[in-house]
Amino acid sequence: PVAGRPGDFAVLPTPGALPGFEHGTAGRPWRNEISTSWLFPLAAFRPVSAVARITAPALYQVAQHDGMPSAGQVDKAIPRTPKAEVKRYPMDHFGPFSPGHQPTVAADASDFLRTHLAT
């Protein structure tokens, strides 16, 4: 499974993962399952070591209550990214997809793009 409750055997076994996954996929043909073919290549993937080479402005949109294992890596990457801009939100991993948070997250991303892509 992609999402599960704490203690479940799932890629994302956190309190908000299963409800968030179910909300985000409601009415769509997605199933709560994932191929494991990506596991071994992912183990060698270390994006934090490469962020210092990013020369363009980069927007980090951080869910402050994200319980996913990769969330800590984002906090390590931010100070290493030369032109990082950070927006933090009081939500969990799936929060950006909820109707209550989506307008703010999308507006921040749009503002960032307008600022940095404007000619």
Give a concise summary.
Helices cover 32% and strands 13% of the residues. The chain is of the alpha/beta class and 119 residues long.
What structural keywords apply?
two-stranded parallel sheet; single chain; alpha/beta; 32% helix
| Oligomer designation | single chain
Alpha-beta content class: alpha/beta
> What is the percentage of strand-forming residues?
5-15%
Tally the helices.
Answer: 4
Query: How many β-strand stretches?
Result: 4
What is the first-to-last residue Cα distance?
45 Å
Q: What shape does the CA trace take?
A: globular
Helix share of residues?
A: 25-40%
Unreliable segments (pLDDT under 50, ≥5 consecutive)? Answer: none
Major β-sheet strand ordering: 1-2
- What summary fits the major beta sheet? 2 strands, parallel
Mean pLDDT score: 88
